[in-house]
Amino acid sequence: MKFDNIIIGGGLSGLTCGIKLAEQGKKCAIVSSGQSAIHFFSGSFDLLGKLNGQEVKNPLEAIKTLPDAHPYQRVGIKNIARLAVEAPQLLDRAGLQFSGKSDQNHFVLTPMGIMKPTWLTIDDFTRFEQNDVFPWKKAVILNFSGFLDFHTLFVQDGLKKYDVDVQIKNFAMKEFEAIRRNPSEMRSTNIAKVFDQGEDVLNEFAQKVNQLSEGFEVVILPAVFGLFTKNVVTDLKSMINKPLVLIPAIPPSVPGIRSQILLRKRFEELGGTYFLGDIVEEGTFKNNRLVAVQTNNHGNIKLEADQFVLASGSFYSKGIVATRDKLYEPILGLDIDGDIDSEKWLDEKFFNDQPYMHYGVKTDSGFRALKNGKPIENLFAAGSVLGGANALKEGSGAGISLLTSLHVAEQILK
Amino acid sequence: MKKEIFEPFNSSDNNFEQCVKCTICTVYCPVLEVNPDYPGPKQSGPDGERLRLKDPNFFDESLKLCLNCKRCEVACPHGVKIGDIIQLARIKYSKKKPKVRDMILANTDIVGTMASTFAPIVNPIVALKPVRLIMDGVLKIDHHRIFPKYAGMRFETWYRRYAASKQNDFKKHVSYFHGCYVNYNFPKQGKDLIKIMNAAGYGVHLLEKEKCCGVALISNNLIKQATKQARHNVEAFKKSIVDKNMPVISTSSTCIFTIRDEYPHLLGVKNDEIRDKSELATRFLFRLIDSGKLKLVFKKDYRKRIAYHTPCHMEKLGWSIYSTALLKMIPGIDFVSLESRCCGIAGTYGFKKENYKTSQGVGKPLFDQIESSDVDFVATDCETCKWQIEMSTAKKVEHPISILAEALDVEATVKLWQK
Q1: Checking CA distances to B195, which of A232, A347, A365, B115 falls within 20 to 30 Å?
Q2: B37: distance to nearest CA of chain A, Å?
Q3: Which chain B residues touch A184 with a CB distance below 8 Å?
Q4: What is residue A170's DSSP assignment?
């Protein structure tokens, strides 16, 4: 089966790369071993949130001081600035509206009740321009009775630091009795499905919210709206008679799943093929080129392409695997940028910058993956499978995924 | 006697311990969405397995509400065989005996043989409203359901009389696992398959007595019988694949999925020697065309608007691309993609009175898509999806092979390889 480009990995990085290539008329396929980490999406994409433990105000400026091995440095500061403008436009064409600036972080209210710096925020959520002021003085947090994935006390405690008077109220509605019977299934996606099914429930809910929030300036709710249709969020905002602040609940994330669905849909509408639940088992290499990959589902019908992109993720997605004594890239056996000595993988202090977090697939300056010390001419690596950054410490995971995959797509389109 | 906790028995040969509790599977479970009585794939599968290994009394009969669609497995980022874990738990721990109704629904072979023999009598009778009400009351087969019509002449009989002798004229050969539906209900699909394969230069042969793949027996917990039939079929496949070097193709996505994957995973029947050479006809044809060994020529005047529905087992196999790619090769086809959703029937599941509501609830998003698609008909590779869509929408359903057979210019195709 022949394509122009094949991308291994169907998460944020793979989909961004696939959409960009397909928009330029390439016939693309994405092979994804299962649903992706977009299901854990908090609602915001970070470019650079922290540097040496300090909050970053202007990510584009701060990036300049990052080490040379960092993916941003390897993409190039100028390119980053340009691609950072392109990324939200690409998302917008997929039906996902984000706002934010790459030269000035804004803030979002986290489930822990603190203000966190970020780059792009999806329009379900509220953007705050300052991290020391909460714009309202009297807030009510509302939660569905029996919904355990929204920790109201954390939010209340957090907001107290901003001198906000916060009350928590729980409420029940008969529409949720059925899912409540089964406590393990009272999850945000199941609540969202109830709202997706009918306007009546949403109307009744909005009335209830308006009653319960009388006397308060702002309503805080868990982000459980609009799984398959975004209208639920916009409708709800118009029905509630005061500002509404949504806060991410424990995953799977409702806006995250909606984002995954819309990105995949955009890719497929552009003619892309998305193989879900399939695994690349091996690659056929010839003269320093990857000619084809063999997958579990397609067996001896190999998938061929002119260029390949490895966007298989880091340790969690098994893009890189560590056993007791071995660190390796499991799909194509590529070279790894990381310490051979397993003693050096970990810092014994858990909250320190862990060395293993910086490990990833080795590439040349053009993001071509290395195998046995030599770059594979038509195989690029993008996203968190790349090493050189501790995305968790820096708050740079989504930025690296989006921008390296756009950069790699540009290399392919050259 | 109860086993001691520290004996090695609390290990499992499935991979439930790979589950990281991310809950993504529950998002894509079609049953959970409409029936809160079902505990969901995570709890029924890996979570429950942990408990069942300690004490089988933790088994919950509500696991029978699982459709076995395997969409949880397709969604799982960590490759946990959630659907298999649930089905294996039912096989191992369920104490409920199958009802008479379940045996009737599951024994497609025996019932099919009887019903097709008396087809002129059986067809009108089971279609009568009073009869359907009696079946509903006595057997708990929902009265909304209409049984597929039985054919007067079985496919096997037709083949022996009219097709068998011509098959040796070809240089290349395949065996055909037709399945119960083609044999008893819809021989035309088998005839269409032979038409295409012959046009492609292949003689088509039947296996040395095939038996029902057993999917309905598995889902109705008639495991002994299912295992017996599985062993029989693997032997029959071996005679074709190993002894005669003839691959086996089928037109039923569920039969082939059961034979390739459920035999080893659920019944413990090994199929290593035959698995790779047992596949769907659409995949077999696609491979020939993709590798340049075959070219199909289509009629110039064929014009249809067609939507393709991905059956759950095709989603799991990842093979719908073969069917859709073949359909898209027909120049006169206006192709409409449907979002992949379960139709809700799941073989015999939707025929049971207690499941009717769930079944239709699961299928609704698909039915809505089909009704608004403005197509001439729907294409799909699964026979029970076909019944469900025809019972629940205004559209007719055709198998991709039948559509190809209709659109194919046989003479022009044959000329290309005869030269």
Answers
A1: B115
A2: 8
A3: 39-40, 42-43, 47
A4: E
**Which CATH code is given to the segment(s) B304-407?**
3.40.50
Q: How many CA atoms lie within 13 A of B156 on its CB side?
A: 18
One of 3.40.50.150, 1.20.1440.20, 3.60.70.12, 3.50.50.60 is the CATH number of A2-103+272-413, namely 3.50.50.60
Location of structure tokens 């992706």: A36
Q: CB distance from A294 to chain B under 8 Å?
A: no
Give the number of beta-carbon pairs within 8 Å between A and B.
Answer: 90
Determine whether domain A126-247 maps to CATH 2.60.40: no
The answer to whether B28 and B73 have CB atoms below 8 angstroms apart is no
Q: Which two tokens stand for residue A266?
A: 């955009």
CA gap A148, A72 in Å, rounded: 38
> How far is CA A169 from each of CA A140, A145, A172, B169, rounded to the nearest angstrom?
7, 9, 10, 80
Phi first, then psi: what are they for B226, rounded to 5°?
-60, -45
Q: Are A45 and A120 in contact (CB under 8 A)?
A: yes
Per-residue pLDDT of chain A (414 residues; tens, 9 = 90+): 999 999 999 999 999 999 999 999 999 999 999 999 999 999 999 999 999 989 999 999 999 999 999 999 999 999 999 999 999 999 999 999 999 999 999 999 999 999 999 999 999 999 999 999 999 999 999 999 999 999 999 999 999 999 999 999 999 999 888 888 776 778 899 899 999 887 899 999 999 999 999 999 999 999 999 998 888 999 999 999 999 999 999 999 999 999 999 999 999 999 999 999 999 999 999 999 999 999 999 999 999 999 999 999 999 899 999 998 899 999 999 999 999 898 999 999 999 999 999 999 999 999 999 999 999 999 999 999 999 999 999 999 999 999 999 999 999 999
Q: What is the ipTM of this complex?
A: 0.91
Instruction: Assess contact for A118 and A100: CB atoms under 8 A.
Output: yes
CATH number listed for the domain at residues B155-292? 3.40.50
- Whether the CB-CB separation of A409 and A321 falls below 8 Å is answered with no
Return all residues near B311 (Cβ < 8 A) that are at least 6 apart: B253, B254, B320, B343, B380, B381, B382, B385
Contact A34 B76 (CB under 8 A): yes
Domain boundaries, chain B: 16-93, 100-139, 155-292, 304-407
Return the number of other C-beta atoms located less than 10 Å from residue B286's C-beta: 23
The rounded distance, in Å, linking the Cα atoms of B218 and B87 is 9
Any bridge partners for residue B248, and if so which? Answer: B175, B278
